[in-house]
Structures are given as structure tokens and as C-alpha cells.
């Protein structure tokens, strides 16, 4: 699998969601950050601000160190003045970045229909790594399904990279740099777990952008948006459960919990939009169902708002996000009261035979029993239903007016005409209905309408990423099988060693595949005299690599030599466990003949289903030790294990 950059910024298939498998042997492409599309311009601007923030933070660190070290009073005054200037610049840069992160309109769909905007996340940015060129293109994935495939494949490649190069006993020295998606503050660590967690975060963020870009005026668009937001929630939840002590705020437990709730709330909003695609239903029970769905959306958005205003999340979540979530909560609460009023005043009087069915529905409809007559009287008395409907409409108008007021308070949201248009339309509709059912001779005081009980027919599903379904090939495959040629094993190369055939053959026996193992060395034989030992792996025969060679292939190479002998290269592992763990038939190389193993291992590398070995719930001693969670430290280096 080769990953390289594409000359176009967005790639094809921006509007669809279903992932299409790439042709075998195709080239995976990222997007070029130099292409000036609307989204790439935003990302380039964010990248420049992140670099400036990084520069200012380095200056601040140097000034703070100088302030602590110097004893000269005049120098201290100069440094203190410089620190205030740097801190002021940092604050301005963070505010500018926050405004860019709040540019949710960049990722919205461009259809002419009126849809409530969703909240997508910007991707975490990073610095180039000094790795193989095929791995660099993933730093700028295209904002579509191709980019998702690219990130998933890179995430799986990190499994091979971790096993092969990152030893649990020593530091490789590779520094992974990532910028916080919400604040732009840079973080860097030498542990590969940070790289994997950041890539996983970007997978979830890219799903949010795909979901926000769907045309939710069609059923297919809504279904794709639901799928994308559920997968985003699954990525953030998987990261929350398997990642601890994150060095950046956007990957903290509190932030990830907020993001999971935000994604499920947007799924619930899409479920409500599904029911309104064909317009407002005329049947009272269907209208009551709409009211309860709207109340459910209000309920989940209220939970998200409560999460956003709690410390520490409120300190770095964009104010426009918090305001938008609050506006949506008020808006959908108003919609729940509006549809409750429609169900009460537009429906015909209930027949005696249908009273039990409607009584059962109304008993589960309100949070508290409404004031006034009993349910049978309410269902059959149109005037009583009209009065309760007026009370619901009053609450609907009050909530929509509050939503409009909150919208006007936020400077960034004031630029989003679409959100204001949706709320204003709902407010005018409630006002028109109130004027329609209001009578001039209504001298009674309207009773307080109880809230609608939240209920949904489709609960959001948190879909965990299925990494095992994305097949990749180890790009360092030529180095040899991971069972031997990995960072956890220590070995040294010997050879070429020249062997000639004696009376008893070469004097050693073989077993296994990929690579073939010297199972035993015959005392006094040619192999022992040449320095071969039990447990050596044959990696080359007469200059031909055979790390992935099968048993029969290596045997054929050895038996095909003449009296001139053969040159072989072997690696000798430094073992901590005794040999003999695998019970296989042994092949003896002699002048008489060869007997081969009936069972041969083809040398295939099977990728496990779960790649995050730093699960805090995993039992000690299981999984890969080098993937254990890192602890925060002042010097941004992984903690000792």
C-alpha cells in the first residue's frame, strides 16, 4: 500500500458517504495543502496561526526561564514587559483560532434547502515526521471518504510500525507533534500512543465534517448524516475508553465525553428531521409523536449544554458552540410545544370507541398531568383542547423568542443567517397558529402547559471503528516476519558462512517457515565447525534472501548445491524463553535425502482486531507493553512504565 498526495484538494465523492473499497494495488492519495479550496484555505490559516502560537510559546518559555535565572532588576523589568507582550499576542492568536474553529458554516452542505446547521470539528494539525515518504501524505487527508480510508489505513500501519521499531526498553527518538483542535496549543511526545490517539481523533473529526456536509433535505442525506455522526461518536468514545493522560485538552476525558454527547444529540436531531421530511402529519397521534421526538432532541442538547458550561470544558470550547447548542435546545423545546398544540386543536373530537387508545397516549405524553378537566372530558371537549393548545403555543413562542435572543448575543452566530431563519420561521408559525385559535372573548387566564415527555423511536447507536475490516500490507514487509524482526527481539547477523557437505550432510536439522529455523546442530558436523547454533534463523542462501521462504523452498536451495558448498547468512536471536515452543516435524539435511514437514506456515501476518494496546481496562501482562498509556509530564516525555 503506497500513500501519496493528490494534486486536487477535495477529491471525488464529497457528497456521498458509503465507503467504496479501493482497487487492489491502487495508490492512496491525500489532499495537497497548497490547493486553495474553501476548506483548504481555512486549514492553511489554522496551520499558520498554530505555528505563530508555537513560536510565541517558545518565546514565553525562554522569557520565563530568563526571569527566574537573572538577579538584575532592570533585566527583570524588561523581561516582565516582554512577557506581558507575548501573553497578549498569545491571547489574540487563540481568540482568532477560536473564531476559525467556530466556522461551522464552512463544512455545511450547499443545498438550497433550509436545514439547521450542525457542529463539525476541525482536524488536528501536525508537523511532518521524519518517516518513510509513503507515510507523510496522511498528514493532510482529503475531507471525504477517501481521506477516511487513508486515516484508517495509516492507523493500521502504526500497528506494524510499533511492533517493528518501537522497543519497550528504549526510546526511538521520534517526536510526534500535534496541535490541539480547539485551542491550537502544540503538544509533543515520543510515544506512538499519542500518534495513534491523534489519528483516531481526526477520524472522528472527519466523520463530523462528512455528516455536516450531507443534504438533509433528502432521506438518503439524513441516513448518511446519521451514519457519519454515529461513527464519529464511536471514534471519540473508543478514544475515551482506551486513552488516558492525554497531553492536549481536546483529547481529555471531559472533552471526549462532551463530543460523544454532542454527536449523539446531532444524531437525534437527524432522527427528528426524518419524521418531518413529508411535512406535518395530520393524524393527532403522529403529531404527538413529533412533539415527543422534539422534546427528546431538546433533552439531549440540554445535556450537551450542561456539559459544555462545566469546568474545565467551558474554558476552551468555542463560545459559539455553547451558544448554538443552547439555541437548539430552546428551539426544539418550542417545537415540542408547537406540535403538542397542533395535536390538540387540529384533530377531530375523539369517538367513544377510541377514547382508551388516546387516553393511553396522553398519559405518557406530558411530564405532569395538565391542569383542568379529566382526560375523557379533554379528549371530547374541543374548547378544553383549544385552551390547552393555547398554553402550549405560548410556551412555544417564549422558547423561540429566547432562542432568537441567544442567537443575537453571539457575534459569530449572527453571521449564520440560516440558523436565524429556521428559528424565526418556527416562531412566526407558532405566532400565526396562536392568532388563529385565539378568540376575542377569551377572558380566562391561560393555564400553564406542562412540558412534553421526551421519547424517541430510534436511539442513537455509538459505532466503534472497525479497524479489522481495513486490510493493509506492512510497508516494511521486506525486513522479515514480525515474529523475529521486531523491536522486542534482539538478534545479530552472522555470515556469510561457507558450508560444504560432509559425510553426514551439512550437520543440522531444519524446521518451520518464514524464516526457517535451525532446530538442532549435529555434534562434530560441518555446521558446528562453522559456528552455527541451535535457534539460528536462515535469512540468505547464496545471496538469495529467504526471510519469507517456506520450508520446502529453503531445503531445495540447500540440496541443490554441489561440491563447492553454499554460503548462508543467519541471525541469532537473544532469547528469554527456551526453544521448542512449536511442535513441528523436523527435516534432517543429509546426503541420504530429505523428509519435509506436512504442515507449512505460509508466513502470513494476521492483523489483530484491536490495535490499541493501551487500554486501561486490559489485564496486566496482556497486549503490547510498548503501547501502554502515557502519563502527563512537564517535559512532554512519556512516563516510565
Can you offer a commentary on this structure?
With 641 residues, the protein is of the alpha+beta class.
What structural class is derived from the secondary structure elements?
Answer: alpha+beta
Question: Which value, in Å, is the CA radius of gyration?
Answer: 33 Å
Q: Give the low-pLDDT segments.
A: 1-38, 577-641
Number of helices: 15
Please give the largest β-sheet: 7 strands, antiparallel
What's the order of the H and E elements?
EEHHHEEHHHHHHHHHHEEEHEEHEE
Query: Termini distance?
Result: 34 Å
Percentage of residues in strands: 5-15%
The chain-level mean pLDDT equals: 77
Number of strands: 11
The global form is elongated
Helical amount among residues, as a percent range?
Answer: 40-55%
Essential attributes:
single chain; 641 residues; alpha+beta; seven-stranded antiparallel sheet; two-stranded parallel sheet; 11 strands; 44% helix; elongated
What would a concise description of this structure say?
With 641 residues, the protein is of the alpha+beta class. The protein has helices at residues 38-69, 73-101, 145-165, 192-212, 219-242, 253-275, 284-308, 319-345, 355-363, 375-380, 382-409, 411-414, 417-437, 526-530, 551-559; strands spanning 2-6, 27-31, 176-179, 186-189, 490-499, 508-511, 516-521, 537-541, 544-545, 566-574, 587-588. It is built from 15 helices and eleven strands.
Helix and strand layout, with pairings?
Elements: E1 2-6, E2 27-31, H1 38-69, H2 73-101, H3 145-165, E3 176-179, E4 186-189, H4 192-212, H5 219-242, H6 253-275, H7 284-308, H8 319-345, H9 355-363, H10 375-380, H11 382-409, H12 411-414, H13 417-437, E5 490-499, E6 508-511, E7 516-521, H14 526-530, E8 537-541, E9 544-545, H15 551-559, E10 566-574, E11 587-588
Parallel strand pairs: 1-2
Antiparallel strand pairs: 3-4, 5-10, 6-7, 6-11, 7-8, 8-9, 8-10
Helix pairs in contact: 1-2, 3-4, 4-5, 5-6, 6-7, 7-8, 8-11, 8-13, 11-13
Amino acid at each position: 500500500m503506497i500513500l501519496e498526495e493528490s494534486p486536487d484538494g477535495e477529491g471525488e465523492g464529497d457528497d456521498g458517504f458509503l465507503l467504496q473499497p479501493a482497487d487492489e494495488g491502487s495508490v492512496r492519495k491525500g489532499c495537497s495543502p497548497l490547493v486553495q479550496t474553501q476548506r483548504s484555505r481555512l486549514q492553511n490559516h489554522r496551520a499558520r496561526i498554530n505555528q505563530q502560537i508555537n513560536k510565541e510559546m517558545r518565546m514565553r518559555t525562554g522569557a520565563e526561564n530568563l526571569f527566574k535565572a537573572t538577579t538584575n532588576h532592570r533585566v527583570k523589568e524588561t523581561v516582565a514587559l516582554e512577557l506581558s507582550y507575548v501573553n497578549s499576542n498569545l491571547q489574540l492568536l487563540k481568540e482568532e483560532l477560536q473564531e476559525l474553529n467556530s466556522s461551522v458554516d464552512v463544512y455545511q452542505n450547499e443545498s438550497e434547502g433550509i436545514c439547521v446547521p450542525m457542529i463539525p470539528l476541525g482536524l488536528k494539525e501536525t508537523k511532518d515526521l521524519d518517516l518513510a515518504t509513503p507515510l507523510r501524505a496522511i498528514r493532510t487527508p482529503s475531507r471525504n471518504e477517501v481521506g477516511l480510508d487513508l486515516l484508517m489505513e495509516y492507523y493500521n500501519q502504526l500497528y506494524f510500525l510499533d511492533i517493528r521499531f518501537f522497543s519497550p526498553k528504549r526510546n526511538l527518538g521520534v517526536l510526534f507533534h500535534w496541535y490541539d483542535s480547539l485551542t491550537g496549543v502544540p503538544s509533543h511526545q515520543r510515544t506512538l500512543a499519542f500518534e495513534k490517539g491523534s489519528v483516531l481523533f481526526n477520524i472522528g473529526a472527519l466523520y463530523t465534517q462528512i455528516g455536516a456536509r450531507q443534504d438533509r433535505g433528502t432521506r438518503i442525506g439524513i441516513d448518511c448524516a446519521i451514519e457519519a455522526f454515529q461513527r464519529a461518536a464511536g471514534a471519540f468514545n473508543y478514544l475515551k475508553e482506551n486513552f488516558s493522560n492525554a497531553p492536549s485538552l481536546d483529547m481529555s476525558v471531559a472533552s471526549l465525553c462532551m463530543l460523544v454527547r454532542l454527536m449523539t444529540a446531532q444524531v437525534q436531531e437527524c432522527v427528528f428531521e426524518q419524521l418531518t421530511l413529508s411535512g406535518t402529519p395530520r393524524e393527532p397521534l403522529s403529531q404527538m409523536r413529533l412533539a415527543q421526538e422534539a422534546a427528546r432532541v431538546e433533552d439531549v442538547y440540554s445535556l450537551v449544554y450542561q456539559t459544555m458550561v462545566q469546568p474545565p470544558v467551558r474554558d476552551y470550547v468555542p463560545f459559539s458552540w455553547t451558544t448554538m447548542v443552547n439555541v437548539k435546545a430552546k428551539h426544539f423545546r418550542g417545537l415540542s410545544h408547537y406540535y403538542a398544540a397542533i395535536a390538540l386543536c387540529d384533530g377531530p373530537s375523539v369517538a367513544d370507541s377510541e377514547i382508551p387508545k388516546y387516553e393511553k397516549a396522553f398519559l405518557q405524553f406530558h411530564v405532569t398531568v395538565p391542569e383542568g378537566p379529566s382526560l375523557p372530558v379533554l379528549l371530547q371537549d374541543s374548547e378544553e383542547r383549544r385552551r390547552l393548545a393555547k398554553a402550549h403555543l405560548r410556551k412555544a413562542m417564549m422558547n423561540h423568542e429566547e432562542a432568537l435572543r441567544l442567537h443575537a448575543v453571539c457575534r459569530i452566530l449572527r453571521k449564520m443567517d440560516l440558523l436565524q431563519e429556521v428559528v424565526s420561521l418556527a416562531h412566526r408559525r407558532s405566532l400565526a397558529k396562536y392568532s388563529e385559535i385565539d378568540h376575542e372573548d377569551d377572558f380566562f387566564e391561560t393555564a400553564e402547559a406542562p412540558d412534553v415527555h421526551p421519547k424517541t423511536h430510534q436511539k442513537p447507536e455509538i459505532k466503534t471503528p472497525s479497524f479489522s475490516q481495513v486490510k493493509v500490507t506492512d510497508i516494511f514487509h521486506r525486513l522479515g516476519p514480525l515474529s523475529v524482526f521486531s523491536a522486542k527481539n534482539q538478534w545479530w547477523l552472522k555470515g556469510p558462512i561457507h558450508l560444504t557437505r560432509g559425510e553426514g550432510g551439512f550437520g543440522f536439522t531444519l524446521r518451520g517457515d518464514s524464516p526457517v529455523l535451525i532446530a538442532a546442530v549435529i555434534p562434530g558436523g560441518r555446521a558446528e565447525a562453522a559456528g552455527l547454533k541451535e535457534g539460528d534463523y536462515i535469512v540468505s542462501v547464496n545471496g538469495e534472501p529467504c526471510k519469507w521462504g517456506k520450508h520446502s523452498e529453503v531445503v531445495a536451495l540447500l540440496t541443490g548445491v554441489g561440491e563447492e558448498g553454499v554460503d548462508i547468512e543467519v541471525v541469532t536471536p537473544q532469547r528469554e524463553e527456551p526453544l521448542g515452543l512449536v511442535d513441528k516435524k523436523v527435516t534432517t539435511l543429509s546426503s541420504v535425502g530429505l523428509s519435509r514437514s506436512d504442515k507449512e506456515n505460509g508466513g502470513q501476518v494476521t492483523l489483530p482486531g484491536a490495535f490499541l494496546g493501551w487500554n486501561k481496562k486490559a489485564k496486566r501482562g496482556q497486549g503490547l507493553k510498548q503501547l501502554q498509556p502515557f502519563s502527563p509530564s512537564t517535559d512532554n516525555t512519556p512516563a516510565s512504565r
